[in-house]
Amino acid sequence: MDTKQIEDKYQLPTYHKFPLVIEKGRGAYIWDEKGNRYLDFYGGHAVALLGHCHPAVIKAVNGQMRRLIFYSNAVYNSMRAKAAKSLVSLAPGSFSSVFFCNSGTEANETALKLAKKFTGRDEIISFEGSFHGRTIGSLSVTGLKKYKENVGSIISKVKFAKFGDIDAVKKLITKETATIILESIQSIAGVREASGKFYQQLRKITKERKIILIFDEVQTGLGRSGKMFFGEHFGVMPDLLTLAKGLAGGLPAGAVMVSEKIAKSVQYGDQGCTFGGGPVISAAILSTIDAIQKEKLCENAGRVGKILKKELISLSHVEKVTGEGLLLGIKLDVPAKEVQSKLLKKFILTGTSDDPNVLRLMPPLIISKKETDYFLSGLSKVLGGGI
Ligand SMILES: Cc1ncc(COP(=O)(O)O)c(C=O)c1O
Fold first, then answer.
1. If DSSP codes are grouped into helix, strand and coil, which group holds residue 374?
2. What are the pLDDT digits (tens) for 192-209?
3. Residues 160 and 274 placed together within one structural domain of the fold
4. Which residues partner with 148 through β-bridges?
5. Residues 317, 225 share a domain
6. Pocket flag, ligand 1, residue 133 (CB < 6 Å)
7. Distance 241 CA to ligand 1 centre (A)
């Protein structure tokens, strides 16, 4: 049996896969088992913020592996201390602490739990079209219905407002509302954004009503939107902010940034995670943050995103381009899946979304002008070639 057949036989069949066996990655490129090179505008599922196999992450992880692979939060560790300090120092607003975990869904579960404990209230407001993860709590606040079909009961005290509609939010607020959770750009739904004013109004009303505002920045965080954190575009910072995806340069990590007022109320035992903030992951987080800053990747994401937006809109079959920085949705008047397959034949990987007409781009933040031009020329040929 070859690799595909073995995986299909032994791995639970929960994923749609590209028909590729990928064995190597460097920068914005990946290679299949036959040695074919692909330009990765799918970004390893929006994880490869720094590109694949960033040398600084390899060095940091290798060095830490030789010293100590793992010890839990039952002891102190210098690498965890540095990673926590570095992450908190990055964030504007009143964040004073971080909680480390392993994934985006765990980060959201933690944020919801902290918000409920802090307020002593039980109701949650989320948004239609959102995606927050696959475990029961995160699934309960996920607005996209198809992810929750046939899973039986989930957390019931969740209401969904139309994304971007502040009046709809106001109507759902009660004395029992603990928190509002928001995917800053609704990526999987088709890269949907709200207006800057909406995020500002949301901040205002949550402050007035003493409701905890959570931004799920699992995809947008750490520079992908062209700012380190999405809310910086509009001068809005939430009370809790969740991160994952590229946080540890490709190793599994999640984090919740916690504002001072909430942090002060947290006590021993309120939350825990065996592997969260382990020494190797912390070394990876530290080196990732360092590389984002040293290589000015937020700026690059903003700059390249602008170029892409400007060029993409002039291509045939493109109706609209949404998103910020290097999280972009190309709304087409033809099925995105067909375009994606044709791009794959040209050795370019892209994403689709829940909107069948939206092609999603989540390339590494390191992409150069040359790689951008190569992508644009490939897409232009596909779209101009009689789709
Ligand atoms: C916005 C958002 N939140 C949460 C998650 C869940 O993250 P994970 O798969 O690491 O649990 C994802 C995953 O794609 C996501 O895009």
1. helix
2. 999 999 999 999 999 999
3. yes
4. none
5. no
6. yes
7. 13
